Amino acid sequence: MFYSHTFLAKKSPLGTVWIAAHLQHKLRKSHIAVTDIPSSVDYVMHPEVPIALRLSGHLLLGIVRIYSKKVDYLYHDCNDALTRVRTAFTAVNVNLQEDESIAPFHAVTLPETFDLDALDMEVVTFRAE
């Protein structure tokens, strides 16, 4: 059960997973965001070359740590979005005088008939060509 050093190189498919397992503090958010969890698991479960059980355990630990960070980032993003929605729709305290709390009748009610002759509109003619 051997493995190649190119198998765990930093730019290889499992390089980020290896770094997550052993050097967790060296990972950036961008490294975690681009890591595809299902393909990494498939690569560990069905490798091109046989790998040691201990190595597959380390790689699965790295996958779990990456997944945990992704869940943490999602939680913080959702929490931030919820906070922004709540602040956008907060009730505004308005101090109105008693006589201003009710709108006048003519302001909210349409008249029963419209006096269209009172409107000064230009006559528009349509020419069919």
UniProtKB/TrEMBL annotation:
<dbReference type="GO" id="GO:1990414">
    <property type="term" value="P:replication-born double-strand break repair via sister chromatid exchange"/>
</dbReference>
<dbReference type="InterPro" id="IPR039781">
    <property type="entry name" value="Rad21/Rec8-like"/>
</dbReference>
<keyword id="KW-0539">Nucleus</keyword>
<feature type="domain" description="Rad21/Rec8-like protein N-terminal">
    <location>
        <begin position="1"/>
        <end position="100"/>
    </location>
</feature>
<protein>
    <submittedName>
        <fullName>Sister chromatid cohesion 1 protein 3</fullName>
    </submittedName>
</protein>
<dbReference type="GO" id="GO:0003682">
    <property type="term" value="F:chromatin binding"/>
</dbReference>
<dbReference type="GO" id="GO:0007062">
    <property type="term" value="P:sister chromatid cohesion"/>
</dbReference>
<dbReference type="InterPro" id="IPR006910">
    <property type="entry name" value="Rad21_Rec8_N"/>
</dbReference>
<dbReference type="Pfam" id="PF04825">
    <property type="entry name" value="Rad21_Rec8_N"/>
</dbReference>
<dbReference type="GO" id="GO:0008278">
    <property type="term" value="C:cohesin complex"/>
</dbReference>
<dbReference type="GO" id="GO:0005634">
    <property type="term" value="C:nucleus"/>
</dbReference>
